Amino acid sequence: MQTDERGPSLLRALAEVPDPRSRHGRRQPFAAVLARATVALLCGARRRYASAQWGREQPEAVVRTRGLTRQPTRSVATLQRVFKALDVDVFERGLAQWVPAAVGGRGEASAGMALDGKALRGIHGEQVPGVGLVAADDVPTGLVRAQKSSY
Q1: Range with top average pLDDT, 49-58, 68-77, 96-105
Q2: How many other C-beta atoms lie within 10 A of the C-beta of residue 116?
Q3: Which residues of 7-33 are buried (b: 16+ CB within 10 A; e: fewer)?
Q4: DSSP strand pairing (131-138 vs 143-150)
Q5: By percentage, how much of the chain surpasses pLDDT 90?
Q6: CB of 111 within 8 A of CB of 98?
Q7: What integer pLDDT is reported at residue 17 of this predicted model?
Q8: Distance of CA 6 to CAs 9, 10, 67, 115, 130, Å?
């Protein structure tokens, strides 16, 4: 993970995520779209609407601090299409590289790990099955170190 005087670069960490958009829909670098959504989530935006609003409300200085572009924030519909087509495995690998450097070494695996499992029920009876999710949490940092879902 490359860092500079400001710390590790989220844009570089997400640069390897393949861009699922058509060439006509590429007004911003894909890593910038993902980075802005990630930072919005870290700032408390839990829905696509909140993420889009967060991007619109940031002053120029905040947006340019980490190399994001100031072009108009993507619409909620665009975020929906991007996240639906996102290669989640590559995205998670990029974040897994960035997080330990971003938290200053506190992201290293520690002795305090906890496993958490959830079983989400399906809908419409047997037509749409539920999903099982198991996550390994690093207790001291509160970071999810790994997770696995089954359909």
Answers
A1: 49-58
A2: 11
A3: ebbbbbbbeebebeeeeeeeebbbbbb
A4: antiparallel
A5: 1
A6: no
A7: 92
A8: 8, 11, 11, 33, 43
Determine if the pTM surpasses 0.70.
Answer: no
Tokens of 77: 């519909």
Interatomic CA distance for residues 111 and 39, integer angstroms: 28
DSSP 80: H
Residue 135 backbone zone (phi > 0: left; psi -120 to 50: alpha; other: beta): beta
Amino acid at 139: V
Query: Which residue has 């390994």 as its token pair?
Result: 136
Length of the chain: 151
pLDDT digits (tens, 9 = 90+) for 6-64: 556 888 889 889 988 888 767 778 888 888 888 888 888 888 888 888 877 877 776 66
Query: How many whole angstroms separate alpha carbon 98 and alpha carbon 43?
Result: 17
Single-letter residue type at 127? Q
Give 73: exposed, middle or buried? Use CB within 10 Å, 0-12, 13-18, 19+.
Answer: buried
